[in-house]
Structure formats: structure tokens, C-alpha cells
From TrEMBL, chain A:
Transmembrane segments: none annotated. Residues 1-28 form the signal peptide. Keywords: Signal. It comes from Roseobacter insulae. Belongs to the UPF0065 (bug) family. Coiled coil: none annotated. This is Tricarboxylate transporter.
UniProtKB/TrEMBL annotation, chain B:
The chain crosses the membrane at residues 26-53, 110-139, 209-228, 324-345, 365-384, 391-412, 477-500, 520-542, 554-572, 599-626, 638-655. Residues 24-445 form the DUF112 domain. It holds the Pfam family TctA. It comes from the Bacteria. PANTHER family: BLR4373 PROTEIN, TRICARBOXYLIC TRANSPORT PROTEIN. InterPro entries: DUF112_TM (IPR002823). This is Tripartite tricarboxylate transporter permease. The keyword Transmembrane applies. Keywords: Membrane, Transmembrane, Transmembrane helix.
Amino acid sequence: MTETNTTRRVAMSLVAAAAATFATNVSAGGHGIDLEGKTVEWVIPFSETGGSAKWANFYAPLLSEALPGNPTVVVKFMPGAGSTKGANWFQEQEYDDGTLIFGSSGSTQFPYLLGDPRVRYEYSDWNVVLASGTGGVAYLPPDLAQKMDGLDASALRDTDFIYGSQGATRLDLVPLLAWEMLGLNVEPVFGIKGRGDGRLMFERGEANIDYQTSSSFLKGVTPLVEAGTAVPMMSWGALDADGNIVRDPTFPDMPTFKEICEATEGCETSGEQWDAWKAFFVAGFPAQKMVFLPAGASNDAMVTYTKAFEDIKARDDFADISAGRLGKYPQMTGAKADGALKSATQVPDAAKEFVVNWLSERYGVTLN
Amino acid sequence: MDFVSVALPALGDAASLILQPIVLGYLVLGVVMGLCIGVFPGLGGIAGLSLLLPFMFGMDPVLGLALMIGMVAVVPTSDTFASVLMGIPGSSASQATVLDGFPMAKKGEAARALSAAFASSLFGGLVGAAFLTVFILVARPIVLEFRTPELLMITIFGLSMVGILAGRVALKGIAAAGLGMMIGTIGEGDSAGELRMATYDMPYLVDGLKLVIVGLGIFAIPEIVALLRQDRAIADRKPLGGGWLSGVRDWFANIWLSVRCSIIGVVVGVIPGLGGSVVDWIAYGHSVQTTKDKSKFGSGEIRGVIGPESSNNAKEGGGLVPTLLFGIPGSGSMAIFIGAIALLGSGNIEVGPSMLKNNLDITYAIVWLLALANVVGTLICIAASGGIARLTTIPFALLAPFLFMIISFAAFQSGQDIMDLVALFAIGFLGIMMRRFDWSRPAFLIGFVLSNPAETYANQAVQIAQSRFRKGFDEGIDYIFSPIVIILVIITLISVVVGLRQAKTIMAEGAVESGSKRAPLIFLLVILGYLGIAFTNAAMIPDYAAADRVFPRFVAGVAIVACVILLVQMMLRAETHALFADRESSEAEMNAHGLWTTLAWFAALLLLTFLLGFILALALFLFAFIKFRAGRSYGFSALYTAAGIAFMCFMAGLLNRDFPPGLLQSYADLPWPLS
């Protein structure tokens, strides 16, 4: 039971903190820092092609406008070892004049959570100023989607599923565990370079189940759905203010995994397995991408950046310009971002242990 | 009906996409850059594209494509200058042009040779573009049926070309390709994330070596070092001479040769991985075979220029076929091209079948751009030939540090890590040795480029096939042995047989004399040693990660067997045998400088970079090199250094890049660009 409580406690703190956002962080600092004539480097530990690049490139020009003194904001890419290289590098940086920020992603969070030996970074040393959420959608070919009896997925249990996967220790852990809980027989084919390759495999008819994060789903799979070659199965859902999983605001018509699980015999929405899934879902999606200042950042700098991101969110056109590029997900600042960081990086030990065991039993992956 | 309803409108859309002043402006810009890259010996499409790569991010797709296609298409046109005027291939695709083009220039017929070459290049380029157009039309429905087994077979087909590249000793080609594949497997495995020949203590190796570095190291650096050692002063500049029109007439008189060689170029270009390094030799061989009076070849036969030049431009069109259709690179530069396309716009253009499905207009825009770039490139080459020809009179000792600086910068773009320079130096050294002992460098690069697709497709095809077989035997067989796969298997088998038979007549890198036994033997033992270690390393991967073990172990095993047979042969044969090819003996009289002293210059640059950071090290290197090696005055050296550093800072500033820091930077806080 403890793990349920922890999840709930984290979620509660997230809500409580949200109310206090304006009261604490923003007004506490006073003047803030002036970045006029300076260049802010935004380090992204991935290559130019990934989702994090798109996210940073969306924010960079807006951030330049919103920061005092309108500094130039440049996005620098430092790819390597699935973002571990860049994060380890950032760990060694000290706060100087507020011109260095770092963007992490779910792929930075998961190795940290699972105790990957390559991880030499510590999230609690860093200072979060923005947390961006996202969601995910699983989908099926039409003939298999037809087999589902409403929300009940048990008729799919006699199908051999093939799924193009980037690796069981990555974000793919969330869909793989979800499908296993539904009793589906999904065999991951490893070795694809990005989720886009997984979709291509699905399009070629070699994979017969797949998932995409929200923005990729909107762009890559929606045309397939319209053409009748793919049918959405479920979304992972989103977190409400109380930490409950509710329907994803970007896909309000799609059932969540929780709904499917409840309707499918043998799948439990409580207990060890569910708690582990939920913990890793919370770590991987509702606060997937975060912006950090390095260790030792001054309060002034924190205030300045928090204010800048809040100003961006407050823009009249923010809803319009962000919906297409980021999806309709919370962009959290201040204490709310702190709460999101905690929920994303503090998974209960029991959940971690469960997943580590599951990875080693099911996929033979050992992390040490 | 597909043709009328889908392809024709797409062709029209593509035309309107590119017929805008700004697109044409970018195309011309790309062409001009390609001209410069092509004229300088040692630099080719790989170096050019890797310099453009960082600029592609977020660029409007059509503009970015115009820039890249402009550059790629024109390199085989402009490299003719160096081949004809200097007797040095401007890039690997015009090595054969040297044989007859250079003697013509010596006879004062440079203009005739150049104009015949440009006419042939233009014609070949247009044939390539036309072929690509038709091929996309015809192949589109078939390509959309391609799945993993078919992609695997295309990759294997590309690898089978190693046979034709191997030259006189087939086993050397197999060993070279195997070594390339093994270098390609370094780092984290794609399937289970096990490390191959790497440790987490060296994060650089975990990600594997980048193509830019391997491409530049294996081709550009050995050429530059070799030319630098010869230290040729090209002071004896001859006038280009007249006869521009007679060159065009020569081409027209041999138009059927040009047609045939263009087709050869297209076909060779289509084969994945083969690229430009052999196409000119095949075309040259064909030109010799089909000429009645063979006596003039080698001393200024115009057909010896027309053949290779027709083929090397046509191969770019052919090379785009596997690149665009399957996402499998047709050559080293095409592999970089694929990476660059992923950066364009919002990153939603994916090379491969999905591009034919979703971005047919962009696909055809590439075809149009290719044709247009050839025309523009030829026009500029003819119009500016006097000025461009003057570039070739720069003594190589002045050019080399500049080229080396550009290559270092390009290499450093790929990982932004000082280790990039170390890797470049290491692979460069390997390249120098492979060149020296006549191990096929194209075969090595094919192995490297196709290593990853071969492994991934093989693993995935096996895994998916297993699942299909569980469902039913028929379904599994249908999956693995589709009609397309069977056709590809037959083509591959034919190409291996024909390739091995033809290999003896095609010397991809010219004839090499044999030297003593010792040096080639030591090199073979070193290669064998590495393969042995890599084999053992792969064999130690535990069972649960077997997917990462199978491929390197298999490839290393094959390569080891090839090396061991070579070793036995070396013991049995006399030292005049082709096995003991050693350029040091054949080029001895041409080399003004020793290998090790030349290498020491570059090693010093590397060492200084570790101590002082790249920019300070580069400044010292440039100054010292120009002063002492090239023997210029202090003033000239200072000016040269300032210009070089300014150019680097301009490029890096444009890209918001820092330079590799050294030990000094960890003690002192220096301003950019020294930081």
C-alpha cells in the first residue's frame, strides 16, 4: 500500500504547491537577473532529429523574447549514450551567470530511476524551471481492433503481436508493461532507432501493434486513422489535480489504459503491478521534458527564468501556437514544476524493484 | 493509372517547388561550393556535405535540398580540373580521367580535354536525372511492397559488390569489408544494448564511430598526406590552350560511348554502397575495350576522358535510387545526405518508401534539382575555367593545412568532442596504411556504411520470421521468400560471379607495385589481431543479449578466415606477388618527405589541441607549417594563419559552436573562441 500512498502524496503536493506558485517563487526573489547582450545556451542531450529538439526549438525564440534584456537563446545538441552523456556533463557544470540551461527528457529520467550504472547525475542537485507534459496512444490494425469487445481486450490474447521497440529500459517500458497486464502476447523487435521507425514497421504490416507520443501520433498516425489503416486502442491518459488517471485532454474520445484494464478480466488497476506501471507512466509522460538551471543557481536566476516561462504561457497566442507543436498538455513552472520533478524522479522503491525484476525475468536485462 | 493520377501531378508540383528565385539562388550557391570542394584534391562529397550538415537543421526542405544537391551534383564535374591540369584526382570519382586527361594537358590541349569532359559530365548528369525519374515511376509500386527481408537483401546485394572492388586479391577485399563492418559495430548494440569493443569509461566509443569521421579518415586524409609528401610545386603552369569547341565536337563524335558510359554510371550508382570510387575505372575499361586503336590510351586519348566523365556524373542520379527509395545509402556521401534530410524543416521527411508515399513532390524536386545543378555547374565551369584553373596552381604545401583544417572542423561537427579528432587521426592512419598496402578502401567503407543496416535488418527479419513461423509454416515462408527477395538473391549471385571474374581487370586505385615481404605482413598481422580481439569481445556477450553477439561474431569469423588464408599465401608466395603490394616502393622516387615526419605534423596538432584547445593549437600549427614546411616568410605565415583562424571562427560563429577545449581551458577562463 505504501507505494500507492506515495504516488498520491506526490500528486497532492503537486496540487498544493500549484496554488502557492505565485506566492512563493515569483515574488520572493525581488529583482532577478538581466541578460542583456548575453547568449543563453540551452543544452539538449539528444540529436537534432528528436522530439526534444522540436520542443526546445519551439521554446527558444519565445524564451529570448521573455527573458529580461532579450538575450540570444541558442539550442546546443550534445547527443550520446541515450542522453546520459549530456546529463553527466551538465552535472559537472556550476552556476555562473544564468546563461546555461539544460533540457532533459523521459530517456534521461528512466536510466536514473532504474539505477543505470552510467548515470552520474543527480536530479535533486538541479533547479527545475519548466516541466512539459505529454501523452501517448497505442493503436492497432483495423482487423485486430475489431476483435475488441468494447473496452474488453481479452479477445486479443490469442494474437501474436509484434512491436518495434527502442529497448525495454526506455520509455517503451510503459507500453510493454501495459500490454502484458492486459494479457497480450507482445513480442518486441528491438533495434529501431526512433518511434518513427516503429510506425513504419506498422505501416509495412510487419508490426501489428504500436504506440506513439502525442505529437507524433497527431502527425504520423492520424492520417492512417483517416485512411482506415490504423485504429487507436487507448491513450495512457493524463493526471488530474488529485493524481488520478483521467482521459487525455488531447484525445478526449479515446479510452485510457485504465479504462481498458478495468474492463478486461485479469487486469487489475490496483496492486504491485499497477502501481509500478503508474509510477513509471508518471515518470515518463506527465512531466516528460524539463528545463533546469545547474546546481547552485541563485534565487534571482530562478525567479527570472520562472517568470519568463510564465510570461510565455500567458501569451495570448500560446494556446494556438503550442497546440500544434506540443499538444494540449500542462506546461508547469514554479512549485508546480518542483512537484512534477519529484513525481518524475522519485519512484517508490517497490515499483522500481518490481520493474527491475520484470525486466530481468522477461527480457533478460540486467542493469548492473 | 498510378502514373497519370499520382506521378504526373507530383512532377508538376515539384517543378513549381523549385522554379522560384530563392531556390535557384540556393542551388547556385551549392554549385559554387561544390565546385570549390571538387577542385581541391582530397575533398569530395563526404567532406562537402558534412560541412553543410549543421546548417540543414530546420531549414526549409526545398532550400536545403537545393544547396545539397547543387553541391553533390557538381563535384564530379569540377574535380576534372585537378585531374586534367594537375594529374591528381580531384575526388575519387575522377581517378581514371587522369590517365588521358593529364597527358593532353601536357601537350597543350587542356581546354580540349576539359570541354570534352564538361560536355560528357553534363550529358551523364542529365542521363542520371532522367533515369532517376523513370525509375521512381516504375519502381514506386514495387518499393511500397518492401519489408524487412527485402531491405536486408538489398543490403546484402550492396555488400556483394565487395567482390568487384577487391582488385587483384579477392580475399583482401573481403577482409577489408569485414574490417569495415567490425568498425561499424563498435559501440552499443542496437538490439540489446550490449557494448562491442567499447567501455562505459570511454563514452565516445559507446555511440560508435560516425560516418563523417570514417569517410574523411579513410579517403581524404590518405590523399592529402600522400600529396603533401610529394610536395609537388605546380609552378610549371601551362596555358589552357584553345580548342574548347573541338572538345565538344570530340564528345559529339563519341556520343554513343558517352551514352554507354552514362548507363554504366547509373547502374553502378544504383548498387548500394558502391559509390564513385570504381565507376570511373569501369567506364575507362569499357572505353578501352570498345576502341579499335588502343595505342593512344595513356598518352592523351580523348575517349579516355569522355568515358569516365560521362559515368561519374551519371552515378549521382543512380546513387539517389537506393538512397531515396529504400533509405539505404548509395555511397558514403549519400549516407550523410540521408542524415541531412532528417534535419530539414520540421524533420518530417523520411527517406525511404514513406517518402515515395508521402513526399512524392519533394522526391521529384530532387530529380529536377539534380538535372538543373548539372547544367548550372557545367556553365559555371566553362565560364570560369580560367579562374578555377588558377586554383590548381597553388602549391599543395599551402593547400594542405587549409584542407586539413576544414576536415578537422567537419569531423568535429559530428560529435563536438575532442575525441572526434583522435578518431579522425586514428582512422586516417588506418586509411594511409590501407592505401599503402593496396587494401580496398571502398570495400572498407561499404562494409562500414552497410554494417548497421545489415545487422538491424538481419536481427529484425529473423525475429519477425520466427513469429510468423509460429503462426504457420506457409506464412513464414511467404514472409522470407517473397518474389522480390528471390529476384534479389538471383541478382546478388550473378553479381558475385561476374564481379569476381571482372575484378582482375578493374584496379580501383590504380596499379601498385610490390615491395618487400615484411611491411605487408606486419599490417596483415595487426588487422588479424584486431579482428581476433573483436571476435573474442563479441563472443563474451552473454546469452540474453545474443542478438548483439551473432552479427559481429559472424563477420569477424569470416574476416579472420580470409586473413588466415592470406597469411598462408604470403608465406608461400614470392615477394613479387600482388599480395605484397606496397606503395612505398613504387612511389619512393616521388616522395620528397617521409611518411612519419608528415604524420608528425598532424600528431602535433592533435597533441597541442589537448593542451591548448583547438583554436590556439590550430594557430600554432598553421604558422609553423607555412613557415617551416612550406618555407614562406614570417609575414606570409602570419597572414595565412590569421585568414585560417578567421575562417574557422566565422564558420563556428555561424553555427554557434564551441571548439574542443584543452588542458589550458580547464585552468583558465578564456573568451570565445579560445574557450
